[in-house]
Amino acid sequence: MPTSQQLQTCFILSYWITKMYVPIYMIRIDERTKNVVFLAGEETEIIIYPNGKWRYL
Q1: Are 38 and 10 in contact (CB under 8 A)?
Q2: What per-residue confidence (pLDDT) applies to 1?
Q3: What are the tens digits of pLDDT across the range 10-19?
Q4: DSSP track, the chain
Q5: Average pLDDT over all residues of the chain
Q6: Rounded to an integer, what distance in angstroms lies between the CA atom of residue 3 and that of residue 53?
Q7: Number of folded domains in the chain?
Q8: Strands 24-29, 54-56: parallel, antiparallel or unpaired by DSSP?
């Protein structure tokens, strides 16, 4: 289950991505690290850490 910070960050990123008309293909939690993996568009991969911080890969 994602943390409240991850949910908030995921919602904000989803808003930004879809505002640019980029499709979101998958949002998944990595069971080992508890990070949320966010795949959108052709090349966008974002990791959201349990503390809500995120970065592009």
Answers
A1: yes
A2: 87
A3: 999 999 999 9
A4: ---HHHHHHHHHHHHHHHHTTPPEEEEEE-TTT-PEEEEETTTEEEEE-TTS-EEE-
A5: 94
A6: 12
A7: 1
A8: unpaired
Q: pLDDT per residue over 31-45, tens digit each?
A: 999 999 999 998 899
At residue 4, the 3 state secondary structure works out as helix
Number of neighbours of residue 52 by Cβ within 10 angstroms? 17
φ, ψ for residue 27, nearest 5 deg:
-130, 120
pTM, entire model: 0.89
Give the range of the structural domain holding residue 13, as residue numbers without chain letter.
Answer: 4-56
CA distance 23 to 15: 11
